[in-house]
Amino acid sequence: QAQLVESGGGLVQPGGSLRLSCAASGFSLEGYAIGWIRQAPGKEREAVSCIRWSDESAYVANSVKDRFTVSRDKARNTVNLQMNNLKSEDTAVYFCATVPNWDWQYWDGPYEYSEGISEYRGQGTQVTISA
Known about the structure:
The chain is mainly beta. It has one helix at 101-104, and strands at residues 3-7, 10-12, 18-25, 32-39, 46-52, 58-60, 68-73, 78-83, 92-100, 125-129.
């Protein structure tokens, strides 16, 4: 069964770090770009980052650019989101999704993610930042 599965979420104190992983099984991420999107209660869904699998070119939202980095692990068919210096406003469900390579360029700036563009989407992992 082809799927994306996120892991690595949890509860951390402000200033802490987490590394989220998005693992693909049953298919290869080759040929896709992979986006991370977060959804906080009562807030608009926010596009956080997008990485192009072919050359690891990536965009990260301005709101987290100095704290989050995204990378790929080709051996594990996985994309990682390293989140440092976490703040309470980072609390959200984070999910990953495949998007077409042509869509990747639009993540450089305000981007409104729509699920219809994704062939695969994970269920999400909860990230809670609290003292």
